[in-house]
Amino acid sequence: MDNKLRIIPLGGLGEIGMNMMVFEYDETIVIIDSGLMFPEDYMLGVDYVIPDMEYIRQKKSSVAAIILTHAHEDHIGAVPHLLREVNAPVYATPFTLGMLRHKLEEHDLLASAALNVITPKEKLVVPPFEFEFIRVNHSVVDGVGLAISTPAGLIVHTGDFKLAKTSMPGMSTDIELTSFNDVYAKLV
Length: 188
Description:
Blueprint: E1 5-11, E2 20-25, E3 28-32, H1 54-58, E4 63-67, H2 73-76, H3 79-85, E5 90-92, H4 94-106, E6 115-117, E7 123-126, E8 129-136, E9 143-150, E10 153-157, H5 178-187
Parallel strand pairs: 3-4, 4-5, 5-6
Antiparallel strand pairs: 1-2, 2-3, 7-8, 8-9, 9-10
């Protein structure tokens, strides 16, 4: 054990699609999102592109959870491929899980998937991490960002979001979350 926090993007940085972020501390890995990317014009014959999961394959016994921020394909599209590699519970909001269920059913993985509903302001503890789910407004309903308490400090993972004056009732971005206020109070 080296007591280091590792944040490893396996996709989604510098590109649109393939969102997949690994949070690793000691022997525990939590994966945030597992999306696909639709092919570029030069990718003839390619239906979709998924993140490189070799790092996950090498450490599959350390994967403790998969958390999904929202239901867009660039965040959930590669989950069936990921669940073929690892056996870990999946956490997401009701709408996101509803969309994922259809995808897992198409891949004959629904019966073996451990799907868990989370709600904004709820906390999930996956030692040594604690995740607080933050309601975010986006172009799809039921999105969340994450306030992640780690041994190295608090990390905010926004997922995709927008700040809008109008949104569906109960779906606007929560900018007054307890964890943010606690961090802000310490800074001022």
